[in-house]
Amino acid sequence: MGLVVPLKKSANSAYLELKNLLSEKLQNVETLILQKLKSDVNLIERMSNHHLSSGGKRLRALLTLGSAKLTGYKDNGRDINLAACVELIHSATLLHDDVIDESKLRRGSQTTNSIWGNQSSILVGDYLLSRCFEMMVEDGDLEVLKLLSSTSAKIAQGEVMQLQHKGEADLLEETYLDIISLKTASLFSAATKTGACLSQSNEKEKKALESYGKNLGLAFQIADDALDYYAKEKLFGKEIGKDFFEGKVTLPLISIFQKGNDKEKKFLAEIMKKENRTDEDFGETLSLINKYKAVEATFKKAEFFVNVSFDALAIFPETEDKRILQNLTSFSLNRSF
Predict the structure, then answer these.
(1) What is the pLDDT of residues 55-83, one digit of tens each?
(2) What is the DSSP-derived secondary structure letter of residue 189?
(3) Most buried of 11, 14, 40, 181 (most Cβ within 10 A)?
């Protein structure tokens, strides 16, 4: 396939360092989630347990906990409650995503919808969101309630916007960035800002952490979209070419459409409009990806957002917590899981 991007141990260790720092709290988040998802309806519990045990990184929960720690939150359990809320929002959107995309695999395991069907998966996703909003109301912080509620709406808007532009080979980069800002970066941003809200930080610190999360989320999604064109399924737990076969136009395709000649643009426009794309279509597209170094260009764009995210924390004192969060920005570019 041409391109091999080296995976840096330091990137993975940055994530593991954050996870180890917050391991006790993260375990409490996991316990709380399991408690909140108990149900008299046995199928709900079975489906939600299957979905939540599929090996997620809990990155958004860690960002909530880490941001609260950075800004001096003194523990009374609210950080655990709200980190669980953030994770439940993410889990619910993944359940809905898998239905929309007709996915069979997530993180190397069978998706919930492939086992129990689309109808049950949508309803269980709704159940997760409902439990999340109950927890937010119990927390009682109107600023956080408004933030996470509006974020849920943004994610839904991003999903609809992506569907609206499905198969558009001539999608503008600006539109693509709008989609991933809503669909992915908004929850990263909400997670980090929630941590600051817990500490009753000033507006400057809240905005700094909001920017850190948003740009980290953008970098994370852009890098993930690049992985679709070279990642190994056994390593990343995702189907190679998944976005391509689903008709999703992401930055690597936008890059080759911008640089390609008329014949190549016509080819891309035609195959992306098709109901189904073939392995041959994918192979020809990969040739163009390599010809125009589209994956390298995609990572270059992601690197820009990594740098913005890193710099956003400059206003905070030099502490171990700040160092770990800043180092985490490299994880989005060079992770191996």
Answers:
(1) 678 999 999 999 999 999 988 899 999 99
(2) H
(3) 14
